Amino acid sequence: MAPDGPISLTDLVSVLRDCAGETDGVDLGGDIADRAFTDLGYDSVALMEVSARLAERFGLELDEDAAFDLGTPAEMLRRLNRAAAAEGEVL
Coil, helix or strand for 17? Predict the structure, then answer.
């Protein structure tokens, strides 16, 4: 289902928690927008799962290469919201 408005950091954090939980010492409730996914404990396998869940939840697909190129939650949100504006095109 495509979102009614922009996907928020709260939406993304919900998906991140669903996929891989939280690494010890990492507070996903804090200001994580510009922190590297690797610093948050998310490796390539976790990001593949995040990408799949985003497709299920919002109908927005990130191709595998794009998912790996996005280094921070802020970068991922920009890409997802551009896709939402383009009516769910694969990015």
Answer: helix
